[in-house]
Amino acid sequence: MVGILIRNGKIFTMAGITYESACLLIEDGKIKKIAEKIDEKENPDGLVLDVNGAWVLPGLIDAHSHIGIFEEKKGKIGDNSNETTEPVTPYIKALDAINPMDAAFHSAIKAGITSVMVGPGSSNVVGGQFVFIKTNGRCIDDMVVLEPAAMKIAFGENPISNYGGNSLMPSSRMSIAAMLREELSEARQYFESKKAALEKGNSFEEDFRKECWLPVFRKEIPLKAHVHRADDILTAIRIAKLFDLKMTLDHCTEGHLIAEEIRKSGFPAIVGPSLASKNKTETQYLDFKTAGVLAKAGVKVAITTDHPVSLIQCLPLCAGIAAKEGLGIEEGLKAITINAAEICNVASRVGSLKAGKDADIAIFDGNPMETFTSCLYTIIDGKIVYRADSA
């Protein structure tokens, strides 16, 4: 793989250091070095990009999306986001439904978005397993960074409308919580039984429908809770605490109304899609100020488009509006880089610019959160996958 030397960039490492003018060296798909000066002799036969003061950032990250599962241009036939025949389906995998040929992947790359968290929708109480992937590739298995990456659960209107309208459970918020507690109780019993059997050297008959819960109870991956209303957020917190599990609060639409309670929970929030209509009762208090209120309260915040609810290429603009409405520029950039990576448990590879991390880099002609800013280059795993001058 040909090395790349980026010169004369305003480098935002998102790791506590910003260089007004510096160089970044890429070798074998990884960041090798960042310094104010790097001799071209350290990059023999490699490519040199003089970016003339452009902003150099870690590739942007959307921490919650349905890209490749709910495909553009294909209507109903391209929607594989929900299994709507059974309300509890923890064993299904987003990995099996993502189509890398979805046109939205190119839109993401063109916007400097290099990785995404992708998973099932919110029709089910338990929807299945998310996967964290890069946005460039043709074979989904080669795009994976972390799988499974989270377990989707959902509260509120979506599960109720999908099943209650057909005279099935859940038809109320009470039944959503009860069904989730029942599933988690059975999963915990399975987890403890298997652990005890293996510790004693005994045989154990595995259950396919429960094996998927093991990384959740080992705290390797979080519950990923679809929550809009304040009461749903608090119910999710109550249940996660009951079972001593990690969790992210996704959407968190009324989070600004209970910011202190969320801070006390210790759970991070993935806020959005704020660039969307208030099309149901539980989103009536949708507001771009939510991210800023939560961040100022001490909650770790990421921003999501929830693509295709808002188009994925709008991610930096969503962060920009949130920044204007109280989040601030620095936290706005963090919300689509390092915070998103940390919340998604992939910060060892992406989200900031450090030697040894994946060379996922986005280069802009200014602040990416501003409307007229353009992405000049998108680099994934040390390969230029988009450049504006040849688009």
Explain how this protein is built.
Helix content is 28%, strand content 25%. The protein has 391 residues and is an alpha/beta fold. Helix 4 packs parallel to helix 7, helix 9 packs across helix 10 (315-327) and helix 10 runs antiparallel to helix 11. The protein starts with a strand and ends with a strand. The model has no long low-confidence stretch (mean pLDDT 97).
Shape: globular
**Which residues form runs of ≥5 with pLDDT under 50?**
none
SS element count, helices: 12
Mean pLDDT: 97
N-to-C order of helices and strands: EEEEEEHEEHEHHHHEHEHEHEHHHEEE
Instruction: Give the fraction of residues assigned to helices.
Output: 25-40%
Q: Biggest β-sheet: count, sense, barrel?
A: 8 strands, mixed
N-to-C span: 22 Å
Count of individual beta strands: 16
Structural class: alpha/beta
Radius of gyration: 21 Å
Relative strand content: 15-25%
